[in-house]
User: What shape does this take?
Amino acid sequence: MGEGWRRCLRHSGFVAGAALVLVFAGLAIAGAWLRIGDPLATAPSRALLPPGAGHLFGTDAVGRDLAARVVAGARLSLLVGLLSRAVALLLGTGAGLLAGYFGGRVDGLLMRLADMTLAFPALLLLIAVVAAFGPSLPTLFLALGVLGWAPVARVLRSQVLSLRRQDFIEAARALGCRRRRILLRHLLPNLSGTLWVLFSMGMASAIIAEGSLSFLGLGAQPPQPSWGTLIRDGFGYLRSAPWLTLIPGLCMALAVLGFNLLGDALRDLLDPAGTASSRTGAAGSRP
Amino acid sequence: MRRFLLRRLLALGPVLLGVTFLSFLLLYVVPGDPVQAVAGERYDEAVLAELRAELHLDDPLPLRYGRFLADLVRGDLGVSYVTREPVRDAIAATFPHTLRLALAAMLIAVVLGLGLGLAAALRPGSLLDRAAMLLASAGISVPVFWLGMVLIYTFSLELRWLPPSGYGEGSLRHLILPALTLGAASAALIARMTRTALLEALGQDYIRTARAKGLHPARILLVHALRNALLPVVTVVGNDFGSYLSGSVLTERLFAWPGLGRYTLDAVAKRDLPAIQGAILVMALAFVLVNLLVDLSYAWIDPRTRREDD
Assistant: This one.
């Protein structure tokens, strides 16, 4: 354990990524208790103030404090990311384990299903789902999660395929372990490294996807602040108050960068052979 | 090669069927009555029933899917609920704009990406290399729509060099910013892959042979090494081009670009189901077909991939 941590801390990508992720996670969690300011309180007399002493990031068109809204946005973006990842990893792990371990018809069916999910352009599919069921946060994270199963399943399947031929699985089988025990107690723990990589990469693309849909008006609904809606609201004031778009966008880019760096680093550290594919999208635009 | 081609074409069948079925299903089993969306809420039951019959909404689902497919084969994508015009005509009018934007974005991505990647690989570890790779990391993490806004702010509002939005009757000046916005992420990825592939190629024996023959270093880099580095670049170009044809929704919205993406968003806002369905179907088909072409060209460039079964 000690050696492992030392290796992580020597990896500059890991340190930078983890620092960024911790900053945003800290803001999202602490923001709920610290009440940096009310993200919804309006004050028309203090509208469109530039960043300064009273308001660190300035104020928007109705005088709401941008810093408070950015923190609230961080909470929402990360929450959507976490929930959608939970759904995607749960579905993807289940499918990957089954397809890889049982092979044959189960494998064929699941992988064709994955092909079909990935055959659809990701953002487009999200827009279609939201158009069909109406924009709301549950729709958003469920859609992101359900559509994100395929890349997870593919990566894990290939890992299971190579693991199942190894001696310890043979031994477990020879000892008369039940299938469920082999899958959950022997195979799953060996996938945890890959799962962390998939989680981190997936968070990055989930944050972008949430932001994109909210920017299009198909995600978080006003007055709920998310980074995407903040950027959208600020767009109209790009000339007079550029900080309204530049600051939330920068936060979003840094959070995404953090998760990407962390994911890259984890892959380097946990999976030197490089079996987990990079750029595994939330809804998997890239096979 | 022929067997590979055949297998890929056979695999295309179920995927196409899946794509059509999903786009059919997605919008016809949705909550809410499409007829109400057409007629509004003022009409009485008789009018609604008539409309429902006209749109065949009371038929069983398999029959409707069959009819949908039959129409599709004849190139009929239905009639917009809002404009009452064939969806096909609207798509035919907007798709070329999306294609033009996608081509321009890819051109920018390839030129920028190869340039940066080459520059970085020439002197690995140098300041130039680090700067190029930092730029590439940023390019992958920055949200498209935010990058677009930064570009609009810098080049349109502050410097006043380029127009902030619109199609401008096809002027090149209107094309630059949206194309740069759309192509930036691919440029970043291409730069990274070119660098990695070049560095890997430069360590190979055949490069040492070329050096031993006394070839000019530039010739070694540009002819011998780059040719092998191009393979991953082809994949990125293909994959990303496919997603540009569908994924330019954000860029088109940001720059008020009159393409298929903006048409889709307008249709979503008005709940114009046939328009949404037609647009999504066309974009998904374009995506699938481009991806197939990529796979085929890949097999053509690198014979080693043909035998791979999975």
